[in-house]
């Protein structure tokens, strides 16, 4: 008989929606976490009936069931990082905000609002409820549309993205990564994606927050389904392994180019990113 020889990785938790098409949501999160050397547990907030063409149906789960899933995980595992994705309703946003209030490890908040296909994944009433969850975040990772909703200002240029990041930090987040994948124009042109990281951690010269910009090549494809989920989960996994926010973001942003370039050409729609590359 061979010796039992288990591995003992850090545990991260995703609190997010299920994508029956497999490309985004909990399915992408757990894949990304495992690819980054972390065991992933999951609290499902909603199930969606969707495929690569779009979302057919959304079924938010009751907030008390979200809470009981969270309690089951927290009761058993030493959770080293939490990532939140699609939270669907104001009740779930509020419940999750209460649940993570006692959590003493990194919290990555991906404020998922609308799918790339334009389908809503968050009820409009829940947008205001996000303020307290953002304030509790180690890192909040909005795309430009979500950053605009959270700050109340349009985000159309890299300068707007930096201003939005500063605003989210002023709201209480330790750091904000404003993802520029949806910005088509900017001082730096159309061939690059500019992601802006603002950290509350002081800049010794200016005395204000620290700003870093990450520029990566833009890949010419519509198959970016799951990119936000995979990115925020890769960052959460790296934080669970003890990396810094700056270090985790740097690696995860760099790898996302490859995850898009080597995406999965599955289904009749545009496919999905590949969180395992
Ligand atoms: N979560 C779920 C359950 C989804 O279905 C989607 C998109 O359809 C998202 C999150 C957001 O996906 P993305 O990573 O493309 O932002």
From TrEMBL:
| Keywords on record | ATP-binding, Kinase, Nucleotide-binding, Transferase
Q: Which SUPFAM superfamilies match?
A: Ribokinase-like
Which segments show compositional bias classed as Basic and acidic residues? 212-221
The Pyridoxamine kinase/Phosphomethylpyrimidine kinase domain sits at 19-274
Q: Which organism is it from?
A: Halorubrum distributum JCM 9100
MF-aspect GO terms = ATP binding; hydroxymethylpyrimidine kinase activity; phosphomethylpyrimidine kinase activity
Chain intervals for the UniProt region annotation (Disordered): 201-221
What Gene Ontology terms for biological process does this UniProt record contain?
Answer: thiamine biosynthetic process
Give the record's GO CC terms.
cytosol
NCBIfam families per the record? HMP-P_kinase
Q: Which InterPro entries match?
A: HMP/HMP-P_kinase_dom, PM/HMP-P_kinase-1, Ribokinase-like
The reply to whether Transferase figures as a keyword in the UniProt entry is yes
Q: What is this protein called?
A: Phosphomethylpyrimidine kinase
């Amino acid at each position: 008989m061979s010796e039992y020889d288990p591995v003992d990785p850090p545990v991260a938790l995703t609190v997010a929606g299920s994508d029956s098409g497999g490309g985004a949501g909990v399915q992408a999160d757990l894949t990304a976490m495992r690819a980054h050397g972390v065991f992933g547990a999951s609290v499902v907030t909603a199930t969606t009936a969707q495929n690569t063409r779009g979302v057919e149906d959304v079924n938010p789960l009751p907030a008390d069931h979200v809470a009981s899933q969270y309690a089951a995980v927290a009761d058993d595992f030493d959770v080293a990082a939490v990532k939140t994705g699609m939270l669907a309703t104001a009740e779930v946003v509020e419940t999750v905000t209460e649940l993570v209030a006692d959590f003493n490890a990194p919290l990555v908040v991906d404020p998922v609002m609308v799918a790339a296909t334009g389908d809503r994944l968050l009820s409009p009433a829940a947008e205001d409820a996000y303020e307290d969850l953002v304030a509790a975040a180690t890192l909040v990772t909005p795309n430009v549309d979500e950053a605009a909703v959270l700050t109340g200002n349009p985000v159309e240029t890299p300068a707007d993205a930096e201003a939005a990041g500063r605003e989210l930090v002023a709201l209480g987040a330790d750091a904000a990564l404003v993802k520029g994948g949806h910005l088509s124009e900017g001082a730096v042109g159309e061939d690059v994606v500019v992601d802006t990281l603002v950290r509350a951690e002081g800049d010794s010269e200016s005395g204000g927050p620290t700003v870093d910009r990450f520029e990566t090549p833009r890949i010419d494809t519509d198959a970016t389904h799951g990119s936000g989920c995979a990115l925020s989960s890769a960052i959460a996994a790296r934080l669970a392994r003890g990396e810094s926010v700056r270090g985790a973001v740097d690696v995860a942003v760099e790898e996302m180019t490859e995850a898009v370039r080597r995406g999965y050409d599955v289904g009749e729609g545009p496919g999905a990113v590949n969180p395992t590359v």
